[in-house]
Amino acid sequence: MKPFRITDDATVTFQYFDESGKAKGEPWRMLARSVDFDPYSLTYKKETTATVGAKEFVELAVDGLVDKNECLNASDVKQALTVDLGKELAVNRVTLYTFWNADEGRAYQYVIDLSADNKTWNTVADASTNTVVATPKGYSHTFDTGKARYIRATVLGNNRSKGSEITELRAYGPDQKPGVRSTPSTQDQPNAQWLADLQFIMRAENASMAPTEVSGKWDLIKMAWGPNFNCKLVGETNFDWQCGEASGVLDINGQTLNWCTGGGNGTAVGITITGKGGRINWDGGYSGGWVTYPSDLRGDRPNTFSGVFHLRHGYMLLRKSAGVNALSGDIEMGGADGFNECFLVWDKPDQLADTSSIVTLPLAKDVKNQRASLLLQGQSETLGTLTVGTETIIDLGTNKDPNIKGTIRFADSSKKPWDLTKSLTLKGTGTVSFGNSATGLTPAQLAIVNIETPQGKAKAKLNADGTLAPR
Ligand SMILES: [Ca+2]
Ligand SMILES: [Ca+2]
What we know:
Elements: E1 10-17, E2 23-32, E3 36-37, E4 47-50, H1 55-59, E5 65-66, E6 79-98, E7 108-115, E8 122-127, E9 139-158, E10 166-172, H2 192-198, E11 204-209, E12 212-217, E13 230-241, E14 244-246, E15 249-251, E16 256-261, E17 267-269, E18 272-274, E19 279-284, E20 295-299, E21 308-320, E22 331-334, E23 342-346, E24 358-361, E25 371-375, E26 380-382, E27 386-388, E28 391-395, E29 406-410, E30 424-427, E31 430-434, H3 443-446, E32 449-453, E33 456-462, E34 468-470
Parallel strand pairs: 12-13, 13-15, 13-16, 14-17, 15-18, 16-19, 17-20, 19-21, 20-21, 21-22, 21-23, 22-24, 23-25, 24-27, 25-28, 26-29, 28-30, 29-31, 30-32
Antiparallel strand pairs: 1-2, 2-11, 3-5, 4-6, 6-9, 6-10, 7-8, 7-9, 32-33, 33-34
The structure holds calcium ion (2 copies).
């Protein structure tokens, strides 16, 4: 078998096969994280002490791995980390790896010293006034070769917080190159621990069993809810779930999910919804009833499900973390015979993919309250086109911060087949735009747009930048 190379974080699926090539047992997955690993540093797994920190955290600084999420930390005080090389060795290069966050320009101040006896120290790098921003490459210092048994890095703090996070401290002799096995003059022969580590530089996290396959009527009672929830549709599935909370993963897998939630009860959907294509037909509440309590899509992981989300009726709140997609595909609203109106509501900004388009569908003739409403609540969104097929309302609402106005930016929708017997009504102050020019809607489309102003209803025009304004 050829070795395969992973150059970035990747989820790898494993499966056993018998000699005839037939799959045996369950596949399983793990997340392989890309990390810098060097077991040839003189400091690798050497006896290490620190001014602050439990033993397992101190060991993180010499475990061979540069992982900014695994640091020996100290806040409010300087952190001195001392590595005992076990015997005097020739050293001419030290690299200190700290936490890094280039976006916030985090730079660490530190001093590095060498010693033969752990008492008398020789400073080889004084970066106590450093302003160079920390990166995954660490802070490297090369100096005249000296003999040392002890290497000490004292991190004084950083310019963004009081933390002194150390993820790794490495050192090398003059005949060494980082990441390369050297001659034994400066280094012990590889021991069993090194070899074990070299064979396992992929770090296993979130190892999980294959998803449970689901189709037909979904029997919830047998399902385990929580972070380990892991299901995949393998056929059309009917899923009645009146209230509750869940997390984990649901792969729509190109299938159809008929999903009913709520009905006077909110349903918190913290599940991460994935899968290419397919469709979710969502009913919030019950046929003919007035839905008073929203269900919501929440959590800090994006729903990457790229099929159609059909909000048949009910009140769906988009409540993912700001900028995290609650929906990544297209959205249909309304169109459900005998059901009342539907609301798509923003609780946080930037909840839809910039390519997600919205179509409001015509309802059956005998249905009252034939409306589809987008309630921005003072949040902002950029998305794809809008197609008006029923009475459609955009209410920009108000933000908790009075300086922030609701904003919704549709793509140029002039080619979309609007039902010109219906209307689009705008409420609230803020920005609604179609494309970025005065041609983002046709004159016929503009003729059915009403803007509610303090002075009453006004007809609409598009400014040169695509924003709607009273005419
Ligand atoms: Ca480390
Ligand atoms: Ca967006």
